[in-house]
Amino acid sequence: MGYVRQSRLTDAFELSLKLRQSDLDELAVSSDDHPLVILSRPFARPDFYQTYTILDDHENVIAMFGVSLDAVVWMLASDNLLKNFTDRFLRECRFWVDVLQGPHRVIYNYVDHRNRKSISWLKFCGFEMSPTPVPHGPYGHPFYLLYRYKEGTINVHEQSESTAPTAPATSSTA
Question: Per CATH, which fold does 3-108 belong to?
Fold first, then answer.
């Protein structure tokens, strides 16, 4: 892993051509938009998104991640991220999740119930998960709500087994 920097629009083009299959599968059931449209969205509203790119030692884009003003976090990657940079990624990822957390008391997103690697990684980064998947996206595919509270804040998102999980107030998804 070479380094992390603020994203550029050209990063979205490059990454859209080599997204890992699990990300393509998740995007297919969560949105009708092409991956390039999704990756380009932060550049249409740079005041609303904070977006970063992970590059390898040869300046190739291997992942993009970010957060919106309404606290929706996201990451999309190529297979190269975990194939060649697992150790360094795992050492540094919590720092970057803290950067994304920034002023937000809670950050969150929905994750495809089939995406076990992403769910395990998000738990490693301190995210909590709704007890059951909920319908999400245009096709009502089952997704887990994953959310992370800033250290030192009280988690008021208590759920009983009889209540359906709800996200913090927003209408935007990434």
Answer: Aminopeptidase (3.40.630)
Q: How far is CA 111 from CA 61, 79, 84, 146, in A?
A: 23, 18, 24, 7
Longest CA pairwise span in the chain (Å): 51
Q: Which residues pair with 142 in a beta bridge?
A: 135
Digit-coded pLDDT (tens) for 125-147: 999 999 999 999 999 999 999 99
Burial (Cβ within 10 Å: 0-12, 13-18, ≥19) of residue 43: middle
The domain ranges of the chain are 3-108
User: Contact, 55 vs 82, CB < 8 A?
Assistant: no
Selection from 57, 62, 58 nearest residue 11 by Cα: 62
